[in-house]
Specification:
homodimer, 412 residues, mainly alpha, Na+/H+ antiporter like fold, 75% helix
């Protein structure tokens, strides 16, 4: 029985994830970087104490699906509506520019294959709401006008990103890029978005009715996990990445998704809170495993550090990743300082970038070198922006409108 | 990628577990029976939709460890102290009698090998606090004098049972019964019981201090799970069953275990509640997987139902299991009705019996036939007693002392 070995691996993964994420959080670096670092330390790059096996990979995959469920649950469509126009410009700019700049550099500058170049472009499109929200909250600017625009844009970018991920995944599985593939994925996503609110309504009514009646505890977490895994399996079965199912389930159960139904569903606000409450510990348990596995999948020792191409690639992609996110912000009609604040806040990739990179690796599109370059790019664009934002606000903060800033608390 | 298959298996396991346990609960049968039934329906006995694989087995094992953690967390040593003398008599009687009667029938009547006979005796010793508490609560007798005696005895039986399990496991792994094996296990359990409160104190102080400081959510569930899995790995590493680690961790963190330290640790009552709150959804998610796997491990189609020996064995063991639990109660100095109430309440085996049976199967001591007989015995001794108790209270309840019964609420 090698069950003991798996337990030890899990203990090391959870322990290192916690210690490293606390340590980097203390240095004001986003915790997700600490979890990835824990994986690099535990994996073949450094200590080699933990080896990837099927069990850990399935747990990481569940973590990824629950992470997307959580992102979906937190996705607040109303944020988009409030500052829709400006947010849309920033989102489209911050999606199109990184994708095409990343693609162009890979395809023409480094002469990479078409699908690989598209995956690199895709990886650079990500925006992490989590990191940005935390930094803005630290600066007490999370209710400011520019924060609202950034949040709206990040929500849109998430949706764009998941659809693009589904497209690229389909291309890598089917081995080709075709109109029929594109339409298949888009039809699937469309069906999901139509089915989601119906499923959510049925779920909410069923669970809401039985949760108090049931004599057996744990109805909420088991039913929600069952639904999330069912959506994940469904997504996988029709050829999309499983995480799309998690995202759809989260979106379907998010608070704002109920709003179109109006007053009839008002009672379920409590239900959404209860879902969050009972799912939170499970999500918190599984998601670190995913980020540690990202680090474990990387073998820094196998990277040819002598090669100038690799260093060059890393530098180019870091530059592209930063500059391209500023593009969208410069199309909105605001002061120069406002544009810079929005642009800087859009840079962090964090978890969404890592999801792209991991999917690129699993589907065989990224080899170890490219994977390492992408991880370095994501790390740089996650670790640096918080410092850049803090410096920017300290230096130019007084030029920004102070209208809605500071005291309101609408923490998502 | 067969990840999709695993997700589908998990969806089926969780869904069937919930539907079947709700259904049997509606019929006033303990829900754990429904979860086992779900496994029988999904497994090779009936539909054959879910096949056991390593991932599901590890998840079930984690479920088992968390179940024992939960049992440990709920173990209330003070219950024992209150009604210590009578509870001890009932516990010792309800442990020794089933073990020796079960062993004697297997060894002499059916001519089974020594270790197998001991495992069968061990399986019959279990007492499920959960089922009994639920039935007594339904009858509004959970604060009665007889309930207190039964609870105290069940707590002791849990501890006896886990130690016996560790002993039998060691015998089956080392292939022999020796004084050195016995002393090794007893020393290990003793060290655990001495280390547990120290670890708990360090944990409580560390987590209590960092839980509010930490900027990263989820400190409590991840740290507690890490500790539980670490104890499980430790137990496995020194040759005991991993679940002993879960039980020790639970016992160490239970509310009453703090009491010996007195007032200095009073603040951690809140901490124990918070542990329960954040661990509950995780425990509720994993434990059904274990019980479904118990059913999945059983192949009823492979059992030779034509053989009179198998039916005979099932009948004998059911009889032994019921009668032997009454023995202890008849040594206490109380009215006849009181003795019957206590004896009947001690019969349910449920989860603890299933843990024994599953460990017997995994370690290769139980073949499919014996496993089936044990499952049938456990099912009968779990499903029948609630009805017997209800009938008994309806018929003879007025003969029992009414002193502490009914209105107080000290639900564990």
């Amino acid at each position: 029985m090698e069950v003991g070995g798996i337990f030890l691996s899990l203990v090391l993964i959870l322990l290192f994830a916690r210690v490293f994420s606390e340590a980097v959080a203390w240095l004001k670096i986003p915790p997700v970087m600490g979890e990835m670092l824990a994986g690099i330390v535990l994996g073949p790059s450094l200590l080699g104490w933990v080896e990837l096996n099927e069990v850990i990979q399935v747990l990481a995959e569940i973590g990824l699906i629950l992470l997307l469920f959580d992102v979906g649950l937190d996705t607040d469509i109303s944020k988009l509506a409030e500052h829709g126009y400006k947010a849309s410009i920033v989102a489209v700019g911050g999606f199109v520019a990184p994708f095409f700049l990343g693609f162009a550099c890979s395809y023409w500058l480094f002469g990479m294959p078409l699908l690989l170049s598209m995956f690199i472009g895709g990886t650079l499109t990500a925006t992490s709401i989590g990191v940005t929200v935390r930094v803005l909250r630290d600066l007490k600017r999370h209710c400011s006008h520019e924060a609202q625009v950034v949040l709206g844009a990040a929500v849109l970018d998430d949706i764009f990103g998941v659809v693009l991920l589904a497209l690229l995944y389909e291309f890598s599985v089917s081995g080709g890029i075709s109109i029929s593939n594109i339409s298949k994925v888009i039809i699937f996503v469309a069906i999901f978005m139509m089915l989601a609110p119906i499923v959510a309504k049925v779920m909410a009514e069923t669970i809401g009715r039985y949760d108090h009646q049931s004599k057996i505890q744990g109805l909420l977490p088991t039913t929600v996990i069952t639904l999330v895994l069912f959506f994940a399996w469904l997504a996988h079965a029709v050829g999309a990445p499983a995480l799309l199912g998690g995202f759809a389930a989260g979106l379907a159960m998010s608070r704002r998704f109920f709003l179109p139904f109006g007053a009839a569903l008002r009672a379920e606000g409590d239900f959404v809170l209860r879902i969050g409450g009972s799912m939170r510990p499970i999500i918190q348990l599984f998601t670190p495993i995913f980020f540690v596995v990202v680090g474990l999948s990387l073998n820094l020792q196998a990277v040819d550090w002598g090669s100038p191409v690799i260093l060059m690639m890393a530098l180019v992609f870091i530059l592209v990743a930063m500059v391209s996110k500023l593009v969208g912000a410069f199309f909105i009609q605001e002061s120069v300082h406002f544009r810079w604040a929005v642009g800087l806040a859009m840079i962090p990739r964090a978890e969404v970038g890592l999801i792209f990179a991991e999917l690129g690796r699993i589907s065989g599109v990224f080899d170890n070198d490219i994977y390492a370059v992408m991880i370095i790019t994501i790390a740089a664009t996650t670790v640096l922006p918080p410092f850049m934002l803090k410096w920017f606000y300290a230096r130019f903060g007084h030029h920004l409108p102070n209208d809605e800033s500071g005291n309101k608390h609408t923490d998502g």
